[in-house]
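[Discussion] Sanity-checking designs against the backbone

I'm trying to build intuition for which residues belong where. Below is a structure token string of 229 positions. I'd appreciate it if someone posts a full sequence so I can compare it with mine line by line.
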């Protein structure tokens, strides 16, 4: 597709411009010549930023760098259903936040500001209102039963580096175990070596800030939402 074609096509709405595939992301742009073309598209005056036409073929080499990576990537995709693939595509195209997917964070789960009341989790993304979505790390007995939390902004959570400093301050102020209702008993734990448990592994200890999707007794398949205040 040439520059003039991109300008005149009129087939892509302004709403979809950000997610539309580009010619520069096509296999035929600089990797393999299209059968109906005389040369690579980049050599025929095609603009890399142009909206891709129907002859578009994804440039697989951009996401798969080795056979091992290909097997891992394809295995993951094969395990996803149509709905999950659409959601994955949406996640990949979402506006990035300050905290990238997979980043470990810490937060005050309940009670007062004591080391014993902190939990950890991993960022999965942001909501449309820019709340941070955090997943717990399922232990070997909880695989497939994710725990999810929402935080209004980055000031509600601590990165690994920030929490290291926060933990040192709490220890210095002797705010290790909450005397009223500790989320985690600390008596036999060396504070400086303490690592807060993840959301899911200590869900039974979280009080006051846990919202069950059902008011019935929790089942293995139930999901727990911890909503930040």
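Best answer:
Here's mine. Compare freely.
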């Amino acid at each position: 597709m040439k520059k003039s074609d991109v300008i005149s096509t009129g087939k892509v709405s302004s709403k979809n411009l950000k997610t539309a595939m580009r010619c520069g992301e096509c296999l035929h742009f600089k990797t393999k010549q299209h059968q109906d073309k005389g040369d690579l598209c980049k050599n025929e005056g095609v603009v890399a930023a142009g909206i891709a036409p129907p002859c578009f073929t994804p440039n697989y080499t951009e996401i798969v760098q080795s056979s091992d990576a290909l097997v891992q990537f394809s295995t993951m995709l094969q395990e996803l259903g149509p709905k999950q693939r659409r959601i994955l595509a949406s996640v990949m195209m979402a506006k990035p936040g300050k905290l990238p997917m997979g980043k470990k964070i810490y937060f005050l789960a309940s009670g007062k500001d004591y080391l014993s009341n902190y939990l950890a989790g991993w960022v999965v993304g942001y909501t449309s209102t820019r709340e941070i979505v955090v997943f717990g790390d399922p232990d070997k007995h909880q695989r497939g039963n994710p725990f999810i939390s929402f935080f209004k902004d980055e000031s509600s959570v601590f990165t690994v580096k920030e929490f290291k400093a926060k933990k040192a301050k709490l220890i210095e102020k002797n705010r290790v175990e909450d005397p009223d209702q500790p989320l985690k008993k600390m008596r036999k734990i060396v504070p400086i070596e303490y690592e807060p448990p993840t959301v899911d592994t200590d869900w039974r200890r979280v009080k006051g800030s846990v919202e069950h999707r059902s008011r019935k007794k929790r089942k293995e398949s139930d999901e727990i939402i911890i909503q930040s205040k």
